[in-house]
Structure prediction request, 293 residues.
Amino acid sequence: MNAENTAKAAEPSSPVETLINLHRPIVIGHRGYNQIAPENTLPSFKLAKMAGADMVELDYYNAKDGKLVCIHDEVLDRTTDAVAKWGEKGVHINSKTSDELCSLDAGKWFDKKNAGSHLPIYAGTHLPTLDESLDLIQDGNLTLIHHKEGDAATCLKLLREKNLVNKVIVQSFDWNYLKDFHQLEPNQVLGALGPLWSRGGKQLTNAEKVLDQSWVDEVKSNGARLVVWNNQITREAVDYAHQHGMKVWVYTINEPAMANKMLDLGADGIITDNTSIIWRAIALRATEKGLPR
Ligand code: G3P
Prediction:
């Protein structure tokens, strides 16, 4: 064995590399386990882990003070008490500091939506920072970080400080962000979310949004190794991605029939609002059809 091979053999494989190369479908909890807990909160992340998600997905934005905060929408109205608390609608995440944002209640809206159900009361659950979310999820699990807004360097700085480079996966619909991230840290596994709404300045038709070889090529050229698409995928495109060393994950799949269709097309990972339902579908598939893949 020459020196180069020795160095390679000694390099420990990251948990992310191990996960994406497993020969079975990967199940990812979308915004945690958001069918039974308020999305993008610590209880939701905890429940996804308890339900056996391979990864827990969350969304983040840069707050006004540069800290990163977990929330899906760019304004606070739907999933926090910001309107009641501050008397203003449409407040953007980046106009408030992380302390201000984390003082918001991110559970009350969910209680209201599920009034009369047997779910626990989540009022008092605060909006989490990315930092504290990573502490919770990475303790025994892996995070799929969905970048919503902000620069690559700020997220990378946090990952480096926490020694989490390539111990998480970072994904975005903003492929320029991915390109920047890849240039700054080529080792970090990145996922390119699609379909995009436009390409080369042109609005896309539904047919143009279906995953095909040209999309896979473009994802690869931006430094991403995962294609993370909606259910508009084809067997040919998935095979092509696999031939080029890439994986295809799909979102947001909550129905067993659709999960089976995606797995039949060769999808490697399923992002779901309900981890348990998808695991059940995979288990039944295994008993009914033999091993899943
Ligand atoms: O992980 C994929 C998923 O996050 C897709 O985006 O914004 O619908 O949650 P979104």
About this structure: Confidence is low (pLDDT under 50) at residues 1-11. The longest strand covers residues 55-62.
